[in-house]
Description:
The protein is α+β, with helices and mostly antiparallel strands. It folds into 3 domains: 4-120, P-loop containing nucleotide triphosphate hydrolases (Rossmann fold), CATH 3.40.50; 203-228 and 383-439; 238-299 and 312-376. It contains 10 helices and 8 strands. It has helices at 38-50, 111-117, 148-159, 161-197, 202-252, 256-299, 307-346, 348-359, 363-412, 424-439; strands spanning 4-12, 15-21, 67-73, 78-83, 88-94, 97-103, 122-125, 128-130. Helix 5 (202-252) packs antiparallel against helix 9 and helix 9 packs antiparallel against helix 10 (424-439). The longest helix is centred in the middle third of the chain and has 51 residues, at 202-252. It is rod-shaped, with a radius of gyration of 70 Å.
Amino acid sequence: MPDIKRVVIENFQSHEKTEMEFSPGGLTVIVGPSDSGKSAIIRALRWLFFNEPRGSDFVRAGASGPCRVSAELDNGVIVTRERDGNRNRYILESPDKDRMVFEGFGNEPPAEIVKAHGMVKVPLDTDLSICLNLAQQLEGPFLISETGAVRARAIGRVSGVHILDAAIRAASREAGQYESERKALLDKIGELDNELKEYSDLQDIENRLKQVEQIREEVKVRGARLETCIRLRSEIRTADEGLKGATGMLERLSPLDQAFSYISRADSLTSRLAELARRRDSLEQVENDILAAQTILNGTEGIGPVGGYLDELSRIKEKLQRMTSLRQDLARLDRELAGVVKVLDRTSAIYGIARQVEAMPDLKGRLKLLGDQRTLLARVDKELREARNDMLLAEEEIKRLIPQYEEVLKALGKCPVCFGDITPETAERIAAEYGEIRGS
Length: 440
């Protein structure tokens, strides 16, 4: 460590500008009358070497320049501490290095400054350190004025016992921390035990939760059955409407058998009318032949028998007899034809019905299908009545279970689906809304 060669103090407490030469290689003692600035010199050196005291109260009042303390060492290095209204810095000047300026260094001097002057406090313990280079006024000899504990620490540090002391203190500190942690853990265990008491009925809540789950499953099953019943009811209503339409159609087709008999009779009369018309045509042809024969007879009256005409006349006579018989038959058929025309006039509406029947493809199959649908509708109507009874029972069971569901929700305090908090008012509102939904 280099020795201090010269010190310059400017604007530090009572010193406007003071320069001192230190004795080389020895101990320097500053003496003088009271209030002459001896203690201020020690404070200036401590401010330079250890950044003590902090603040700016030591700046000389009314000073026109900065507060500055410089120490020139025997190796030519100059360490300067300077402070004014805007600056607070260290300056390091070395013979073989460039000038260095340090600002914004915090509470401790820069490491380069400490390395340059070599003055550090000697730690005796974690909370105690002493300065071996500077002594205050009225300060006793080294360690003589200190307490026994401080002297013991200093001697122990020389002999290495301070390591054991530090280990013991660290162990005691850790033991104290562990004891504090143990007490804190015991307190935490007590708090957790008290909190666990709030969950003493957890098994009962779990059982209720299982009951709620069973109720939910039962409600889900009965809800599905209810939806099925509603769907069947809609289908039955549709089938009822179809059945009413089919029944009306059957009622409108009730005279169908009589219509079929009329149609059969009309077909028979039509065939007979066609036969009569064919016979009338034949009769007209015979009458024409008779007229031609009569003309021939009239032309041959008074002529002697001619062998060639006798046979022809004989045939014409026989034919005339047949024609007479046919004329009688034709008169009878005309009477019958008039009767048929009257029947046809009365049954003219039946032909319209017949055309409607012919327009219905596979009427018998449709009638059979309607019969099957009537049987199916009867069975579905029976199932609907049973489903309605089951639905009424399910609604009664749901009404009975809703209060239990509300009590379980209040006891749990949690939603079994999303695990959110549920207040008693919320549980009552859920139960009320569920009842309204089921009631609707």
